[in-house]
Amino acid sequence: AQGGLPTVPVSIAGERFVLEVADDPATMYRGLGGRTAIPRNGGMLFVYDAPRPLAFVMRDCVIPIDIAFLDAEGRVLNTHTMPPEPPRRPGESAAAYEARLPAYRSAGPAQYAIELAAGRLAELALTPGTRIPLPSTKGSGSPVN
Fold first, then answer.
1. pTM of the model
2. What is the pLDDT, as a whole number, of residue 135?
3. Region for residue 124 given its phi and psi (left: phi exceeds 0; alpha: psi -120 to 50; beta: otherwise)
4. How far apart are CA 76 and CA 71, in angstroms?
5. Distance (Å, whole) CA 13 – CA 109
6. Dist. CA 131–CA 126, nearest whole Å
7. Which of 27, 39, 42, 74 is most buried when burial is the number of CB atoms within 10 A of its CB?
8. Residues 105 and 136: beta-carbon distance below 8 Å
9. What is the bridge-based pairing of β-strands 55-56 and 104-105?
10. Is 38:121 a contact under the CB 8 Å cutoff?
11. Distinct helix (H) and strand (E) counts, the chain
């Protein structure tokens, strides 16, 4: 894996992706921050214990990223293309930096989020209501239904 994280194969609109799994707070906080490229069929799958309203920011991100929020069944709630934000300025406090980052929110409680290279969601014509079959990420080996 690019980031040294476990990966899972995920089929999105008929294309096979290999997504890094972020399922702990530190990995989720970092996300794809600091990456200078995302492979065409790569990205990150964020896995939460239960559905909740989610909001992502482009912290330390230098490239645009597409995000899709999914419900507990893997259905797309909504998507965003998130452009990079100006980096933290010299003398700017962490709190001030965080405060100026726009939040990209889920349209309702989401249990999963998928980040891909910008433009990929449009290429895949991914729309709300589309179901993405997700593999189990909790080690049981059975798909998420």
1. 0.90
2. 82
3. alpha
4. 7
5. 22
6. 9
7. 42
8. no
9. antiparallel
10. no
11. 3, 8
Contact criterion met (CB below 8 Å) for 101 and 145: no
Indicate the average pLDDT of the chain: 92
Q: In the block, which residue shows the tokens 């921050």?
A: 33
The token duo for 54 is 């989610």
Q: How many CB atoms lie within 10 A of CB 4?
A: 7
Cα 36 from chain centre: 16
| Cβ proximity of 45 and 20 under 8 Å | yes
Q: Which helix (H) or strand (E) holds 95?
A: helix 94-100
Give residue-wise pLDDT tens across range 80-126: 999 999 999 999 999 999 999 999 999 999 999 999 999 999 999 99
Whole-angstrom distance, CA of residue 112 vs CA of residue 39: 20
pLDDT at 4: 81
d(CA 43, CA 67): 10
